[in-house]
Specification:
Helix content is 9%, strand content 40%. By secondary structure, it is mainly beta. The strands form 8 sheets. A 10-stranded mixed β-sheet has the order 25-24-27-28-29-30-15-14-36-35, with no helix packed on it.
Length: 456
């Protein structure tokens, strides 16, 4: 049996979920050399996910630090069985002991049915030492013609075999899923249910990530786009598309969210191609705004109605589970991650629409590329990632931004706002973004299109 050192009491204990000496929860970690190691993190994954061929999958993980003074955090997921892909996220996060964080924005699309294995790598720095931990897991990818009852039964067996059946209300799951439903409907319902968390067993690893170059390798001098952008490229909103994924670019010091089509981000939700009345009924026509004032940025619970002016949303705006006062605002500081929910505090509830909200300043490397005089600690962009299955991300762009932050396929592309247009640069291309053009990269082609949200 491998030995562990409990981070709570510092004493050696055998392998298990809890320390034999003090009863504290362990992270199930041993070093690759077999020596005892401290328990740094507890990591879980959502075992209740079901996936279908060709579907863009959203994986869920949760991290809980068990010690303080951790830095340089990254996660990487290597998918195997349906083709190999490395998905790396450099976390914009300063871990605090006991502060749990969920990761929702790791996506993958499987081209064929079968077993989809994954290896989860977690790297960090602690007391001057670099550490990498490893965990393995597996999901099943179903053919689109699969029978719903087979999928439901397989999910139950997986949960029971893992020893976590007592943690889940299996009868409650069965009651919400009908065997005569289409597979897409069952998947959508499961993904809206609260996560079925299962702990991952962690081991020390010698794995190291491939070199991540998010600063457009090959660009050695600032890109100069002189003068005003031509009329043909002047735009406040554009859509960048790669495969079935869309990134919507927006600009302006005030971005409006709500279900009315006059908003900058239309928050309507669609299920199986139809508008979801259960969620849309709770979202106000003009629900809230994201506003930039000088070097600061805010989420404001207030919408501007053409007929009678400004008023707050009916069911509220929540930031990290806390409701923003009616007509009030909450600051979102640079280089932080938040959970933004509309009409409720928890996006797992059916009537709530949720986003991961990330704020980014402009690293010096990007300032060198685009030639801008961005301030280091000023919010230069805001990213909104939807919690539901709609494959689109919103990028509120005021300064410059490295697209590799959104998806490894977009690494090496830098975009920025310049006067009334959007500039871009790669290792061998630069210019203005214009609908109809294609940006070629070693990993994918990115199509620039007129703004169009999914389902609208």
């Amino acid at each position: 049996m491998a030995l562990l050192v409990c981070a709570a009491c510092g004493k050696t204990t055998g392998e298990g979920v809890f320390c034999e000496k003090c009863g504290a929860e362990l992270s199930m970690m041993t070093s690759s050399g077999g020596k005892a190691s401290s328990a740094f993190f507890h990591i879980e994954h959502d075992q209740g996910r079901v996936f279908m061929v060709g579907q863009t999958m959203n994986f869920r993980f949760a991290l809980t630090p068990l010690v303080d003074a951790l830095s340089n955090v990254f996660v990487a997921v290597v998918f195997e069985g349906c083709g190999r892909k490395v998905e790396i996220k450099q976390l914009n996060w300063i871990p605090c002991k006991g502060e749990r964080r969920e990761l929702r924005n790791i996506n993958f699309s499987a081209p064929e049915a079968g077993s989809l294995g994954f290896s989860f790598y977690f790297g960090f720095r602690h007391e001057g030492m670099e550490h990498v931990l490893e965990a393995d897991g597996e999901y099943k990818v179903w053919p689109s013609f699969s029978r719903a009852q087979d999928v439901i039964r397989n999910l139950e067996i997986n949960i029971q075999n893992s020893g976590h059946a007592a943690d889940f209300d299996l009868s409650g799951i069965r009651e919400q899923l009908r065997p005569d439903e289409r597979l897409e409907e069952i998947i959508d319902k499961l993904h809206r249910m609260p996560p079925r968390w299962s702990a991952l067993r962690l081991y020390g690893s010698n794995w190291r990530p491939p070199r991540i170059d998010r600063m457009a390798p090959g660009i050695l001098a600032p890109v100069e786009l002189k003068g005003c952008p031509p009329v043909s490229v002047q735009a406040d909103r554009l859509t960048l598309r790669t495969g079935d994924q869309c990134v919507h670019l927006l600009s302006g010091d005030r971005i409006r969210l709500g279900k009315n089509r006059q908003n900058d981000v239309v928050t309507r939700v669609f299920e199986n191609g139809q508008s979801s009345s259960s969620i849309n009924s709770k979202i106000s026509r003009y629900h809230c705004t994201i506003e930039r004032e000088g070097e600061k940025c805010f989420v404001v619970d207030r919408g501007d109605y053409p007929e009678d002016g400004a008023r707050p949303s009916a069911y509220g705006v929540f930031l990290d589970g806390r409701r923003i006062p009616a007509n009030g605002r909450s600051e979102i500081k640079a280089n932080k991650q938040f959970r933004l929910t509309l009409a409720g505090a928890d996006s797992a509830l059916q009537c709530v629409l949720g986003f991961d909200l990330e704020t980014w300043s402009c690293p010096s490397g990007m300032r060198r590329i685009c030639g801008r005089s961005c301030k280091a600690r000023q919010t230069g962009s805001v990213v909104l990632r939807r919690h539901d299955s709609i494959p689109e991300t919103y990028l509120l762009l005021w300064e410059c931004f490295s697209m590799g932050v959104l998806d490894p396929l977009l690494e090496g592309i830098v975009v920025w706002r310049q006067q009334d247009g959007y500039g871009y640069a790669t290792a061998d291309q630069e210019g203005w973004l214009e609908p109809g053009m294609v940006i070629h990269t070693p990993k994918c082609d990115v199509c620039v299109e007129e703004w169009k949200q999914v389902g609208l």
